[in-house]
Every structure is written in structure tokens, then in C-alpha cells.
Amino acid sequence: MSILSSSDQAPVIGSLRLCFYGAGSMAEAVVRGLINQELAEPSRIAMFNRNNADRLAELQSKYNVRVSSAPDDQIGMLRDADVIFLTMKPKDAAEALRKLGGIVKPNQLLVSVVAGLSLHTMEMLLGQKMPIVRTMPNTSSTIGLGATGMSFSAACTESHRHIALTMFEAFGLTTVVEETMLDAVTGLSGSGPAYIYYMMEAMMQAGEELGLSTAASRDLTIQTVLGAAHMVKSTGDMPADLRRKVTSPNGTTQAAIETMNQHEFTEGVIRAIKRAAERAAEMGAEIERSALP
Predict the structure, then answer these.
(1) Pyrroline-5-carboxylate reductase catalytic N-terminal domain spans which residues (predicted)?
(2) Secondary structure class of 208 (helix, strand, coil)
(3) Which residues sit opposite 133 in a β-bridge?
(4) N-term to C-term CA, the chain
(5) Crossing angle for the helix pair 265-291 and 90-100, nearest 10 degrees?
(6) How far is CA 149 from each of CA 138, 240, 262, rounded to the nearest angstrom?
(7) Distance between alpha carbon 163 and the CA centroid of its chain, in Å?
(8) Which of its termini does the chain have fewer beta carbons within 10 Å around, N or C?
(9) In this predicted model, what pLDDT tens digit does every residue of 230-244 receive, in sequence order?
(10) CA distances from residue 119 to 76, 97, 113, 172 in whole angstroms, order as listed
(11) Which residues pair with 111 in a beta bridge?
């Protein structure tokens, strides 16, 4: 089956053949999400990487997807695919896209999850205009709670948009943004789970230093973060309003917040997210420079 190029027809997602060029953690998150949400059959998913046969064997064992370390097989996987996911490491992207330029066909859809890699640079490296979806998901897609920012190249039709949105909405929230905003998405939600994990690490350590067991500190921290996120979502209140409601004058929460403020907690988080967004732009620029003759 070929992806339909007309804007008034949408293919059945489950009938599409998918190929993942790169087999890292983000590729696995997307594959697991697609399979868990019963949006794709493992037999219609192909995956390969540059030279890590052990990793491919692991993915084949876990998900029963097709894998290969043979270059000829990999080219065949790419040519047969309706949707090609660009999930390679940013440092390998330029070389990979140059090679893809002689393989891909106009009726294939490319979906990039490479941080910082612009639509313009991808088309330049491919040597042709293509339907390309630039995305920035996060690893929570694995459990159906992902957050994905998405932009489309000019060659994308309504059918292409439908394919991309259906796939990513199956395992989380999807927001279509102008491409210039994708670095901000990378800084905020793409890298965002790691910020929360880092906070949780500190909370668990504090609990243990106060005498709680490792298990108790872990369980209490997890439930606290989970409950706080659900409170924001279910009430519709702003986090600042909820924080004020539980911060009694001269109470324990106020003492903790004042200590955080002394260490510039808010400013530090904002600087960190902005730095992540800047780094995404820098990575894109590095790829573009490497693409120049």
C-alpha cells in the first residue's frame, strides 16, 4: 500500500508499513506506544541501526518487530515502508539523510524525532522536497502519556497530517506548533520528564536522610507527584493557585518554599529549560553546518 497523497482520503493506519531508522530509546518508546495502543502490528514494523546487533536482537525479542543488520535488507526495509521514522542520533543524521535521498520516494512520509533538525535541513540533505513531519515526543509516550510537539513540511497533505496525528495522539497529547517553536517544545516537554525525575530523586533522598526507608520514600514521592499532576489537570486551577491554597502562613510548606526561593529554584528551572531549547537549536545548526559542501 502507498500513502495516499490526496487531501480527502486517509489510509487505515494499521495497514501502513513502518520503518525506524535508528533503534534508541525514543524509537523504542514510539514502537511500544504504537503496539500497546494496538495501532500497529509488530509484523509491519521494521527497525535497524548502524552497528548494534545486540540492541536489535533485544528489540526483536521484546516486540517481535523485524530487524536486520544487513545493509541490503535495510535498504529494502526503507523502500518498502509507507512511513519512515528518523530516530537516529543527531550526530548521524546528516550522513543518514544523504543516503536516504537516493532511496526514498515522493509517496513516502518521513517522521523525524531528531532534536533540532529543521525541515529545511532535512530537505536539503535529501536533495528533494518531501512530506516530512518534524516531531518532538517524550518518553512518556511509552505508557500512553506522552507529550508531542509537531510541525509539517509544505509537501504534507491532509492525509499525511492525519497519519501523524493519529499515531502520536494514540499515546498522549499532541500539539501542532510553528516549526520555530519546536526547540521550545524540546526544552519544555521533550526533556521535561528528566526534570521531574531529578526532582523526585532529591525528594527520595531527603526522605531517606530524614529516616524514612528507601521503599517508603519512593512510594510517598511517586504518589505525591502523581497526585499533584492530577490535581492540576482535574481542577483546571493554575499550579500557583494550588500552591497558595496549601501554603499556610508560617507553616511547613511556606518554610520549604522560602528555602527553595533562597536557592533560586524557579529561576534555575527556567534557565534550565531555556538552555535545553538553546541546545536543541545548536544541535540543529551543527547538523546544518555538517551538511554544507
Answers:
(1) 18-116
(2) helix
(3) 111, 152
(4) 37
(5) 30
(6) 9, 25, 34
(7) 16
(8) C
(9) 999 999 999 999 999
(10) 25, 12, 11, 23
(11) 85, 133
Over residues 263-274, the pLDDT tens digits come to 999 999 999 999
Instruction: Report which residue type is found at 269.
Output: V
pLDDT value at residue 91: 86
- Other Cβ atoms less than 10 A from the Cβ of 211: the count is 8
The phi, psi pair for 28, rounded to 5°, reads: -65, -40
Give the tens place of pLDDT for each residue, 109-160. Answer: 999 999 889 999 999 999 999 999 999 999 898 888 999 999 999 999 999 9
111-144 burial, b if ≥16 CB within 10 A, otherwise e?
Answer: bbbbbbbbbebbbbbbeeebbbbbbbbbbbbbee
Q: How does pLDDT run across 106-116, given as a tens digit for each residue?
A: 889 999 999 88
| CA dihedral (66, 67, 72, 75) positive or negative | positive
